[in-house]
Design goal:
Layout lengths: L1 H40 L4 H24 L9 H29 L4 H24 L6
Helix pairs in contact: 1-2, 1-4, 2-3, 3-4
Length: about 140
């Protein structure tokens, strides 16, 4: 009985991780697409365009994760608290994304879109770990 329970928990976490990755992938598309449109077509400065793109992807990802990825978690945390927690955690990842982007572009002269992808990749590790452990923490009985 105990072994089945552990396998069930692990498979649920794996499904959540896969869903989180899919949502994250959509967030990358939102972030990169908006950054591209803002900088290339609307000629918004990179520093401002990146902040807008990051914030938009943070909100998009929260709603998708809340409605799909972590929907089945029995959590005692109210919606607005989860939104605030998610925003704090993902905001940290977003700051890392932002700083890596600006560092690589302004210091090393790298292409802005490649630099943004690298920033996103680094922020992803912070994002999943802290959100899984804190924002959508399973209610303890």
């Amino acid at each position: 009985m105990g072994r089945t329970w552990k396998v069930n928990i692990r498979s649920k976490r794996l499904v959540e991780l896969i869903k989180f990755g899919i949502v994250g992938g959509s967030g990358v598309l939102v972030n990169m697409g908006l950054l591209f449109v803002l900088t290339r077509y609307l000629e918004v400065r990179l520093e401002i365009a990146s902040a807008i793109a990051i914030e938009t992807s943070i909100l998009s990802n929260f709603f998708l994760n809340n409605l799909w990825t972590f929907k089945k978690r029995d959590t005692h945390v109210p919606f607005w608290t989860r939104l605030l927690r998610y925003h704090l955690v993902t905001g940290l990842a977003g700051i890392v994304n932002y700083l890596v982007l600006l560092l690589l572009v302004n210091t090393f002269g790298w292409h802005d879109m490649l630099s943004n992808l690298i920033g996103i990749a680094i922020g992803t590790f912070i994002n999943y770990s802290l959100n899984s452990l804190w924002t959508w923490r399973v209610r303890s009985s």
